[in-house]
Every structure is written in C-alpha cells, then in structure tokens.
Amino acid sequence: MEGKLSSVAKNFTPSPIQELSQLAQRCNAINLAEGFPDFPAPPCIKEAAVSAINNDFNQYRHVQGICDQLALKMKKTHGLDVNPLTDIAICCGQSEAFAAAIFSIINQGDEVLLFDPCYETYEGCITLAGGIPVYVALEPPQWTLDPEKLMRSFTSRTKAIVLNSPHNPTGKVFSRDELEIIAEGCRRWDCVAITDEVYEYITYDNQKHETIAKLPGMQERTIITSSLSKTFSVTGWRIGWAIAPASAASAIQNIHIRITDSAPAPFQEAALTALRSPIEYFETLRGEYELKRDFCMKLLGSVGFRIQFKPQGSLFLFAELPKDCLLSDVEYVEELIQQAGVVVVPGRGFFHGNESCKYQKRYIRVAFCKSGATLNAAAQKFGELINAKACPKILYQRK
Ligand SMILES: Cc1ncc(COP(=O)(O)O)c(C=O)c1O
After folding, report:
1. Is residue 233 in contact with ligand 1, taking CB distance under 6 Å?
2. Domains (ranges, CATH) in the chain?
3. What's this model's pTM, rounded to 2 decimal places?
4. Distance between Cα 94 and ligand 1 center (Å)
5. GO MF terms on file (predicted)?
6. How far apart are the C-alpha atoms of 332 and 337, rounded to whole Å?
7. What does the pLDDT look like over 334-363, one tens digit per residue?
8. Helix-strand-coil split of the chain, %, nearest 5
C-alpha cells in the first residue's frame, strides 16, 4: 500500500515529539507534556452528557441552543452582535472549526500569516488547502510583536492571518495595541483574521482576553474559532465552533457536514449546561490555573531555569534552557525523562521560520493543566534529583 500513499500523507510524518512520547510511556514518566487536564471535568456537565445518552440523543444532531448561548456570550463579553441562526457553525472541536475555516477561504497559492512560534496544527491545514504559510517571528524573551516586521509580511497574496491569543506555546496574551496593529494590517490588505481563542477564559494576573473581532471594521473580516475543550476540561468531547459573517459561517458549516456531518450529539447537549455555567466557574478556573502556573515556575526555578516570560494566559510555561546547559531541547527532554521520570515537550516543534533558528532548540514547554497530585509528584522527582546532586546535565545552579 505504501506506493499508493498520497503526497500529503507522505508529508505528515511522526514528529520527534511523538517519539519522545513513546520513550516517556516506556519510562512511565509523569506527564507535563500534553495540553490536556488529567483531572475530572465538572460533575454537572458530565451528568448532562450521561443524561443525554440515556435520553437517546444518540443520532446526528445540530443543537441550536449552543448557537443561542454563544451569541448571548458574544454580546455580553465583547459587545458583538452575532446572529445565532446564520453566523455560527458547530464543529468537532476548534481543530475542525479551524480546518473548515481555512478550507472555506484559502485557494491554491494564497498566503497565510502566522506568528512564530505557534501551535503545530495550523500549518498542516493551510498546506492541505494549498495555502502558503508565512511566518512572522515574535521576539523572545517577551515574544514581542514588531509592527514593522508584521506590516512587511503582508502582500497582495495574503488572504488571512492566524491569531491565537492566549497563545500556545508561550502563554502570551496579545495586548490591545498589538490587536490594533494586526487589525490595521488586515484592513489595509483586505485580509481575514482567523482566531483561535480556546484559552479565552484562561488568563492570569488580571489580564483580560479580547477578541480582535470587536475592533473597528474587523467583525466582518474575522472568523473566531474556539471550543469547550480547555474551559471545561473535556478535550475528548470534540465540541467547538466557528463564529463568522454569515457567508463564511455557512461555508464552514457545509464543509463540516461533508467531513463529519455533526459533532457528537450527547456532548452537544451537555454543552448547553457548560455554556450556562455561572461566572464563579470561570473565576475559579482562572484562580486554580494561576496557582498551578506559579507552582511550575517555582519548580523550574529549582533546577536552574530563569523564567523570563511569565505566562499571561493558556496552560503552558515556555522556558528557555539555562544558559550553561549545553543540551538541545530534545536532549534535555530525553535526560529529564530518563533521570527525573518527568516528560515535557521540546520547543522546536512550535518554531517554523528561519528567523527563529538561533533559539528554536533552546526551549521546552511545560503543561501545567495537571492535578495537584501530578504536580506534587513531579516536584518530588525534581527534589530527589536535587538532593542526590547526581544529574549535572539537567541541574543548574542559579547564579
Ligand atoms: C492553541 C490550541 N488550539 C486548539 C487546540 C485544540 O482544540 P480542540 O480540542 O477544541 O480541537 C489546542 C489543544 O491543545 C491548542 O493548544
């Protein structure tokens, strides 16, 4: 069959991260790698899903109530008028919403701007659609957006820009000024903003998430994608959505119907309960994740990291290896698995452009969306290493 594989399939090969993940499994390592919670979802939404199955919501389904709830939320949170009947497509997670959004607007040869580093799945969707990813490097250590660099990247071939805020892997929340600059580029070059707002409720230190769609002239050129996955700790339920002007939302809906037909029916029903959660739910979520973030910053500090950028949102700490560390990101993660029994993600998979080649092997990503028990177990492993002083390759004195 190998000879029959398409060129697309041949290009999508396993990454070094997947290989490390196998090593981590063999070593039974504590998992601070993957961006999903290892603790239970809220009981009331689980009960809603069970009840939906028992009440036989088990067939193809479109739950209009989700669109109604989302439209209310867009008005209340961002002041945006969204028509629940025409402007929202329910999809299988943000992932499908994003893929369908790309397929709905990208033609062969269209350029799509992305920030570097970024979440890994965008590029695959863009190239599948025949688009050309063009990377705009954010500048470490604060992952600053250089307005001139961004403006130079737009061309008459630029069809869209992808904006993920709060950002995976860095934890950056794009500021209002940065959103204004991106919006200015979109308006000037008549370009679409496709946002990924899956961490919209997970921001720290009083930071607030804002959607670029609310800036002047932007709602008509923005496709917002998001999901239940991270906000409600249900990454496996596959409920997400795209919110866009009616023509784009309907194109996304048509693509979604051809690929998956509908998102899982019982989980759509449970989404109604989730989306009606009281404000206290979101406040508690933020507060708990902020404590986890601080815990992990201390943990990395204890083995010699100096965290220059404190995550403002999302579930990740993107940390530069200590200056004295001669290992690459992949080598560091291998040592960490073997010596400490803890696995994190090497940073290189998030970098794409040439500009980042100087530092793209110098970062690791730590996911702190883990239970207290998991984080304490990781701290204990680090503590044992420090006490044994047996592992010079991954222990660095703070200077
Ligand atoms: C930035 C970002 N977008 C999207 C996703 C996936 O979202 P979903 O589960 O809704 O497909 C992830 C998962 O890690 C992510 O980090």
Report:
1. no
2. 2-41+280-388 (3.90.1150.10), 44-275 (3.40.640.10)
3. 0.96
4. 6
5. kynurenine-oxoglutarate transaminase activity; pyridoxal phosphate binding
6. 9
7. 999 998 999 999 999 999 988 888 899 999
8. 45, 15, 40
